[in-house]
Amino acid sequence: MTNNEIKRIQSLERGKSRREYGQFLIEGKRLVQAALEWRKGLDLIYFSDLFRRENTAWLQSTESSDVSYENIPAKQLEKISFTKSPSGIVAVCNLPEQQKPDLNQNRWLYLDRIADPGNMGTILRSAAWFDLNHVALSVDCVDPFNPKVVRAGMGAHFGLSIHSNLDLGRFSKTHTLIGGNHRGADAASVEIPERCVLVLGSEAHGLSSDSLEMINQKVAIEKLGFGESLNVGSAAAILMYLFTNK
């Protein structure tokens, strides 16, 4: 592995380089396994000698003619790793092509100005769990393919259709917009129409004023105990559960 190759892979931690090369990074056996199972975008897998020795059977079972495998020294693997404790395997994936959003889909999740990578990844992971496979992001959201988002998403990216920089107004004529808001009605008692969008705002700022103006129904999670608020990832999971079970 040349120094130029190392620098190029390291650059994929930055959004500008991800867009320039059309690629993003994943790290860890479970994420690589998810990418292999979905057969989406895997381009090149790097692994260390130690990883090879401990995972020989797994590597042999996952060999694919569509993916290149490269055994590299541990020091080089550490240079391209983006975690404090490298797992021994890093992969380069191709970014999915941005498709036109299919507004004929009944249920959507819309994220409004979610800037924290960990929260974004957690929400995407929950969306996959609750089968909300169509996700739209506002202009001020963190890049969904930021390494920290991908890591927190735990493979959700490979099964979701994610649309960045999408205006909420695109849904206003086709779907009912249901927004998470502390002044809303109890989410457990609200009737959920068949064609709707669950709109979630950031933990720090909530829904933007523009989004609030378009919301048809505000919903909140009833507090049974004490505490100031729920983490946005926790609130999102609860609302998605209620949203998809009606």
Automatic annotation (TrEMBL):
InterPro entries: Alpha/beta_knot_MTases, MRM3-like_sub_bind, Ribosomal_eL30-like_sf, rRNA_Methyltransferase, SpoU_MeTrfase, SpoU_subst-bd, tRNA_m1G_MTases_N. Residues 25-99 form the RNA 2-O ribose methyltransferase substrate binding domain. Gene3D superfamilies: 3.30.1330.30, 3.40.1280.10. Pfam families: MRM3-like_sub_bind (PF22435), SpoU_methylase (PF00588). The keyword Transcription regulation does not apply. GO terms for molecular function: RNA binding; RNA methyltransferase activity. The keyword Transcription regulation does not apply. GO terms for biological process: methylation; RNA processing. GO terms for cellular component: cytoplasm. Keywords: Methyltransferase, Transferase. Belongs to the class IV-like SAM-binding methyltransferase superfamily. RNA methyltransferase TrmH family. PANTHER family: RRNA METHYLTRANSFERASE 3, RRNA METHYLTRANSFERASE 3, MITOCHONDRIAL. This is RNA 2-O ribose methyltransferase substrate binding domain-containing protein. It comes from marine metagenome.
